[in-house]
TrEMBL record, chains A, B:
MF terms (GO), sorted A to Z: alcohol dehydrogenase (NADP+) activity; butanol dehydrogenase (NAD+) activity; metal ion binding; methylglyoxal reductase (NADPH) (acetol producing) activity
EC category name: oxidoreductase
InterPro entries: ADH_Fe/GldA, ADH_Fe_C, ADH_Fe_CS, BDH-like
Protein name, entry field: NADP-dependent alcohol dehydrogenase
Family statement drawn from the similarity comment of this UniProt entry: Belongs to the iron-containing alcohol dehydrogenase family.
Limits of the Fe-containing alcohol dehydrogenase-like C-terminal domain: 187-353
Gene Ontology terms: cellular component: cytosol
Amino acid sequence: MLNFEFYNPTRIVFGQGRYNDLDRLIPPHARVLVLFGGESARKNGTLDMVYQGLGKRHVESFGGIEPNPTYETLMKAVEQVRANRLDYLLAVGGGSVIDGTKFVAAAVFASGDPWEILLSHGANVKQALPFGTVLTLPATGSEMNSGSVITRSDIKAKLFFTNACVFPQFSLLDPTRSYSLPPRQLANGIVDAYTHVMEQYLTYPVNALVQDRFAEGLLSTLIEIGPRVLANPQDYDLQANFMWTATLALNGLIGAGVPQDWATHMIGHELTALYGLDHAQTLAIVLPAMLNERKADKRVKLMQYAERVWGLKEGSEEARIDAAITRTREFFESLGVQTRLSGYGIDAEAIPPVLKQLESHGMVHLGEHRSVDLDVSRKVLEACL
Amino acid sequence: MLNFEFYNPTRIVFGQGRYNDLDRLIPPHARVLVLFGGESARKNGTLDMVYQGLGKRHVESFGGIEPNPTYETLMKAVEQVRANRLDYLLAVGGGSVIDGTKFVAAAVFASGDPWEILLSHGANVKQALPFGTVLTLPATGSEMNSGSVITRSDIKAKLFFTNACVFPQFSLLDPTRSYSLPPRQLANGIVDAYTHVMEQYLTYPVNALVQDRFAEGLLSTLIEIGPRVLANPQDYDLQANFMWTATLALNGLIGAGVPQDWATHMIGHELTALYGLDHAQTLAIVLPAMLNERKADKRVKLMQYAERVWGLKEGSEEARIDAAITRTREFFESLGVQTRLSGYGIDAEAIPPVLKQLESHGMVHLGEHRSVDLDVSRKVLEACL
């Protein structure tokens, strides 16, 4: 097991309709900015319940945070916070709204250009506004971690930052909030959570037995419930298991004491920034190709994955590994998520710009061995066609 | 899944020899009381490394905290803290030292008799001194939770309290600190961690898929490494897995959103208080008898346990359940821990005093269904003979 430090102070409040808990979770004299995305949070009643839970506090709203939240939009929220001396943020939405709120929380205190927060990957963040979240879409795990991914439209850049100052103080997880999500968003969430686990699990063995068992438990659960969530989106227990699984997939626990990969995510980010694919679509495309290209590096864990997650115990090692990768691809496809660039009308001409972006963002030594250079990325992308 | 709230702000610093990290983890002007048990922490060098890590801070020591730490001893530490205006505690030891430190941290602020903390099970705790821990014995999970069990010698009472004020601020987990533990303590630790998982897992199903998978992962890991840790106590990876497993067994995670039992623990506490058995010995005695007595209540989860943890898929349901309970007993015995009262020279005459103590401590509606009354406890104890 590798040395590690694990710290996660986010309080999880889990269950249906616990909006009155907001009153105890947020300071009584807080001046609150509620941040949200499109109109679904209003239409399905979540915002109303949130406002009611906030009681007599001074509350303002900021809507319109996009999927892949942009610097440009979020800076308007920063202005509102500064102008009206707001001191508490409440994100109501999925990973995009929560990631955006983290950026706002940190950017309010930035002395120079807040885009530096992304360029430094969070190293220059010293302070952030306190905030909580009301999760409406299980997927990213942002509700219980200190990471955030922000897009800048003008330069087509999608970069991450992480800093302990932007752990949510609390996250209210109400599985019924996902009942009305469209199938595409549910499917994306399942793929996203699955890939988060894979980035931390499918590397090389370091004898971290519990981390492996936990990761395998999360993967097995997603395989078990994924298609059922799509078929029965109003089943409380299915949504509850999906929501808690997605949160645990990226709250630092299964990544503590093990090597991590994240090359699939970094390449995926560039595909979204350049061609507008959903985040999870990029993961569904890149992950199977990535595993296949780097079979040698990942051999031992691929064997373990094949056996423990997919129950593949027969045949040659090569056959079992290939079957496990195929099963992964088929699982994503079974959720209705295409796993080839061609499925989204993207051809080989798209590859050089992605490589150029990776280079310009310093993403030239990716993966658990830092061995995913531009040549490997090119091979992976070619295998994604 | 049941509604839940999960909050655990303890920072885990994991790895060999990270004592210099104490300097960053503890405020620079803290006046520190280092609490420890017997002489082993001094003999094996842990205390020296701790003192060095604390640098130029004002540091005092308080040794002699017993296994099953007593109110009487701990009140002397409370006096020392008050007399010398100490403001930070550092527990160096296993669960007894850490539990004792939690009591000291809370008792310093008690207005009346600090024993009230135990009688209220922590409900009356409003404030506690900040403290960290340096763990030397994997077992209780106290290093990452807010619970504590304290014994009062004069009235032979062993009671618990829990309060969010007594989460350790940090715990330094150095697997090499367990290298010199005697086999009995290692075996006790394995049994203790195993039983902690069982108290949260082996109840009735509530469709909490991830909690079940995580619990099964911890149990499988303990079964895999238990005998190997005893045979190779200086194997870093084995001790690292044991230490992290024991921490995760009782940090609130696997118990979030599921029913919990704890009847085995409550009966075990009385056996320790009256007859001086090691805590883990009492668990090894009571757990198999408890599972057997309450087979009907626990049927579905016993079947799942039999299949997923012990791989028992053949034979009648009854046979598989019996085999799983037998395997559990054999696992404890394989570690050298006796699982019958008779193995410790205790006979049927011991039972009535235990029942009397349970009654006087209000332990008359135990278990996940509150169905373990004195009659059930009596049957369980008779099956322990």
